[in-house]
Amino acid sequence: MSWVTDFWKVVETAATLTRDVQRAESDIKELRRDVNTLALTLSQLRSDLTHENAVTRLALDKFETDGQHLKESIDSRFDVLLTRLDSKIATFEDRKPGKQEAKNPRSLENKADD
Questions:
Q1: What is the pTM of this model?
Q2: φ/ψ of residue 99, rounded to 5
Q3: Which pLDDT band, with edges at 50, 70 and 90, does 95 fall under?
């Protein structure tokens, strides 16, 4: 009868090992699904980051271009106002009694005379 008991233990061990192997295979399949899902999520995030990077770069380039245009506009307005101011100063200098030769305050030649 001891051989029957030994045989029964072997059958129980084989059944237990089979069940454990099936459980391990099921866990491995679940882990593979999780890894695949994670890989797809990471790929989507990488794509989203690349897209956001491109959009941000375009926005920054547009702001930089707009800033440059604004600077050029302000510079040209400043030049116009400076020219008008020079003209007004020249007009007032022409009105002074005992008028001397009118000097353009922005010219380099007048800087040497001073």
A1: 0.49
A2: -55, 130
A3: confident
Q: How many residues does the chain have?
A: 114
Q: Please give the structure tokens belonging to residue 112.
A: 């040497």
Can you tell me which residue has the tokens 């005992």?
Answer: 98
Q: How far is CA 30 from CA 18, 39, 81, 108, in A?
A: 18, 14, 75, 83
What the block records as the tokens of 17 is: 């090992």
pLDDT tens figures, 22-66: 999 999 999 999 999 999 999 999 999 999 999 999 999 999 999
What DSSP state is assigned to residue 114?
Answer: -
Q: Which sign does the torsion angle of CA 54, 55, 60, 62 carry?
A: positive
Report percent pLDDT > 90 for the chain.
70
Residue holding tokens 């003209």?
87
Q: Which residues contact 82 (CB under 8 A, 6 or more apart)?
A: 106
Distance between CA atoms of 48 and 59, rounded to whole angstroms?
16
Which residues, in sequence order, are CB contacts of 94 under 8 Å at separation 6+? 102
